[in-house]
């Protein structure tokens, strides 16, 4: 193999570094400088860690390039310098992390005025991040000595690379105690409060977005750490500060007590949504976010957050009615005045998260404000905004499926013999105040009428179908089934009849269509005739088996699917040597198979018989030259020699014998008969060697050969004869020579078999002769012969 040989050529860098006056720029101009550095080329690394070279590398990534440099190579050297410094070479890391003068030069980049160059900022952040990971103690000690470090980080938080650096300090420090010290230090520097101050209308959108994202990531990282490190006794100080009531109140005050700013409002709502996220521990330390209304949280939302949000619910409700001013939006189907906007969409998302907490004070405040009614109005007004529709569906699904809040008072059912049932105020408000059933029926009828007139199907109809199914499902079973049934029974007679007709008619038909599409999927059109015939034969899909397979596909994967995706090295080893092979079971599928498939088997066989033709039925008009010919042995007495000395009295009266006597190699022979001819020059036709031949053929004893080829080949096959008439001193009884000539079309084959009974040996020779006719310009036909001799 090629890797057995040392084909590695000496890098040009080694030759270049032998020069005494080589410069850093000359080295960085080499194409393979990065590869050689990562390969830890000793000469190159020793050159790079020189004090002057290290200082130049840091200068490249912290100072703006000269304006005189051509634009396309302006950031060439800064980029290469960053890659060299972050190549994770131990000598470079040690030199940079232990030299305080180099760290001060690197730190000086933060002291530049805003805004920072985003490209240089990414170089700076990348270099400092790898130092934090490789030299955490030295770098943290250095940064803590800089009193203005946190101020500068907050000042430049609008630059994404600086935000990434702040988060790196929370994730890249592996020693647990050192990480806890960093958290305490950042909390003492009031990082959370300073980030909160960045989210207000007076700041620009970049600061809004990055400050909000930083706070969201701090929340998620802190909660993840709580699950992963079970033995941690100290709480996360940054998370505790964020969950304080005064912190949340400050966030809400920034957006409501000042002018309305779309970017600031959305950023604050993003932080609140992250605070309302509930997570549960998954397998092997992985965390999964609980979808609203789907999983019970492993911990409840901090009550202080809800206390801070409740007084501001009226302000959020007002945003739904009077959002920040938006320009009129023209779409392909009409004009939106005003459009939904990002602000109102996020307010609806916030309402869905608040409903998930299932807190009485929050529920009652939403009922008093009629926030659900306003959201339903938006649902039916903006018929093409599916982002809005899915959030409304989530809200209604949670209201119908959640048990009543713990503080809600029980009410007695209409039948005195039943136990008291705790009723949900939200469900009652939804069915009575919001007229939930009536609005669904009206929207459905309006859509059908519009479609009947040639209009489009409205964009919310799919979600409306799922909402109606949710009502039917929760009225049959669930914690609120009795209350939902009672509220439906209290509808007017007209509305009750419409609802019953709707659920048994239009809704049932729609569900049937959707179920057919999902379970018995349509066959993909194929160009294969076989598939088409089987489809037409009436083979049906077993719905139970198809449903079982669909359920199998929808099973939740194991949590370590990403890590175990692909092949494992142990899979290619002997299984006897592997004693710790992991085995994960996804789930068990229980279904029965009906073994009485006689009808299907018979139908399958019938299709196969129609499709697969037997060999004897497959006829062809054209004759295959390779097909076996049925020939018969003619008695030797009926055949006459084809030599030139033959007389007319020796001719046979059989017409077929006349055709056999014609030489097929004669050019003027127009016969196209493909009958095989066998020419026997020696031996008895009744020889046992001949009689055992599995192929019946005509045998002749002539030695006709127009060109004398056969005779010459026979001469070669015969050993020299002795004067006594014996070949090579042997008698005819000891040696038998058999020759056969087979003619087929343009091919003529002569086979010679010599058998020596004394030595029990046999010599086999075969001569293959082919010819073709050539029509020259003069019109005379000539034959061209080709010979091939094989032993």
TrEMBL record:
Compositionally biased intervals (Basic and acidic residues): 672-689
- Single GO cellular component term: nucleus
Pfam families the record matches: SAPS
Report the superkingdom from the record. Answer: Eukaryota
Q: Name one GO molecular function term.
A: protein phosphatase binding
For this chain, the family text in UniProt reads: Belongs to the SAPS family.
List the protein's name.
Protein phosphatase 6, regulatory subunit 3
Q: Which InterPro entries match?
A: ARM-type_fold, SAPS
Q: Which gene encodes it?
A: PPP6R3
Q: Per the record, where are the segments of Acidic residues compositional bias?
A: 648-658
Disordered as annotated region, ranges: 631-693, 713-743
Gene source species: Esox lucius
């Amino acid at each position: 193999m090629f890797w057995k040989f040392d084909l590695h050529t000496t890098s040009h860098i080694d030759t270049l570094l032998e020069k005494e006056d080589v410069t850093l720029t000359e080295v960085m101009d080499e194409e393979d400088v990065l590869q050689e550095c990562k390969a830890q080329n000793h000469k190159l690394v020793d050159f790079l860690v020189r004090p002057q070279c290290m200082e130049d590398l840091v200068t490249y990534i912290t100072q703006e390039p000269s304006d005189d440099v051509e634009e396309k190579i302006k950031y060439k050297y800064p980029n290469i310098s960053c890659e060299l410094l972050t190549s994770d070479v131990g000598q470079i890391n040690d030199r940079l992390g232990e030299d305080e003068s180099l760290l001060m030069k690197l730190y000086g980049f933060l002291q530049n005025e805003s805004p920072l160059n985003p490209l240089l900022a990414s170089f700076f952040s990348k270099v400092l991040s790898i130092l934090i990971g490789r030299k955490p103690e030295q770098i943290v000690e250095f940064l803590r000595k800089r009193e203005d470090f946190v101020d500068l980080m907050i000042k430049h938080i609008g630059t994404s690379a600086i935000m990434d650096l702040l988060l790196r300090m929370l994730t890249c420090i592996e020693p647990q105690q050192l990480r806890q010290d960093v958290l305490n230090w950042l909390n003492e520097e009031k990082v959370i409060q300073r980030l909160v101050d960045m989210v207000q209308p007076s700041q620009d959108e970049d600061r809004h977005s990055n400050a909000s994202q930083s706070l969201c990531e701090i929340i998620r990282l802190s909660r993840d750490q709580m699950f992963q490190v079970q033995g941690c006794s100290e709480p996360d100080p940054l998370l505790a500060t964020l969950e304080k009531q005064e912190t949340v109140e400050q966030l809400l005050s920034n957006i409501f007590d000042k002018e309305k700013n779309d970017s600031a409002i959305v950023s604050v709502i993003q932080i609140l949504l992250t605070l309302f996220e509930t997570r549960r521990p998954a397998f092997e330390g992985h965390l999964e976010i609980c979808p609203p209304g789907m999983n019970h949280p492993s911990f409840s939302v901090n009550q202080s957050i809800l206390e801070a949000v409740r007084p501001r619910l009226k302000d959020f409700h007002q945003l739904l009615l009077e959002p920040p001013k938006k320009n009129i939006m023209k779409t392909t189907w009409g004009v939106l005045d005003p459009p939904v906007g990002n602000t109102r969409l996020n307010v609806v998302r916030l309402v869905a998260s608040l409903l998930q907490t299932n807190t009485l004070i929050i529920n009652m405040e939403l009922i008093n404000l009629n926030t659900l009614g306003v959201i339903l109005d938006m649902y039916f007004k903006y018929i093409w905004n599916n982002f809005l529709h899915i959030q409304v569906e989530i809200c209604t699904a949670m209201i119908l499926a959640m048990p009543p809040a713990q503080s809600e008072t029980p009410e007695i059912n209409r039948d005195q013999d039943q136990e008291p049932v705790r009723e949900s105020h939200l469900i009652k408000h939804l069915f009575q105040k919001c007229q939930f059933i009536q609005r669904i029926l009206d929207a459905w009828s309006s859509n059908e009428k519009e479609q009947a007139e040639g209009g489009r199907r409205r964009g919310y109809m799919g979600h409306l179908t799922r909402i109606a199914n949710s009502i039917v499902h929760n009225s049959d079973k669930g914690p609120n089934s009795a209350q939902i049934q009672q509220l439906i029974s209290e509808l007017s007679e007209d509305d009750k009849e419409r609802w019953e007709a709707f659920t048994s008619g239009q809704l049932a038909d729609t569900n049937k269509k959707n179920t057919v599409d999902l379970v018995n999927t349509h066959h993909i059109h194929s160009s294969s005739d076989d598939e088409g015939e089987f489809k037409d034969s009436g083979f049906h899909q077993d719905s139970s088996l198809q449903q079982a397979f669909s359920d199998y596909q929808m099973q939740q994967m194991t949590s370590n699917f990403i890590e175990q995706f692909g092949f494992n090295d142990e899979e290619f080893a002997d299984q006897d040597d592997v004693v710790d092979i992991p085995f994960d079971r996804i789930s068990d599928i229980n279904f029965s198979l009906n073994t009485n498939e006689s009808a299907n088997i018979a139908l399958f066989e019938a299709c196969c018989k129609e499709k697969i033709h037997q060999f004897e039925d497959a006829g062809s008009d054209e004759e295959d030259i390779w097909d076996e010919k049925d020939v018969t042995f003619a008695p030797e007495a009926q055949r006459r020699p084809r030599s030139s000395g033959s007389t007319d009295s020796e001719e046979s009266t059989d017409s077929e014998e006349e055709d056999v006597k014609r030489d097929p190699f004669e050019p003027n022979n127009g016969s196209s008969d493909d009958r095989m001819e066998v020419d026997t020059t020696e031996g008895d036709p009744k020889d046992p060697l001949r009689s055992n031949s599995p192929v019946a053929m005509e045998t002749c004893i002539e030695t006709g050969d127009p060109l004398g080829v056969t005779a010459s080949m026979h001469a070669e096959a015969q050993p020299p004869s002795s004067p006594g008439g014996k070949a090579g001193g042997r008698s005819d009884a000891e040696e038998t020579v058999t020759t056969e000539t087979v003619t087929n079309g343009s091919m003529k084959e002569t086979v010679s078999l010599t058998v020596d009974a004394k030595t029990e040996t046999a010599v086999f020779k075969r001569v293959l002769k082919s010819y073709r006719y050539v029509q020259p310009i003069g019109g005379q036909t000539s034959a061209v012969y080709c010979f091939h001799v094989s032993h």
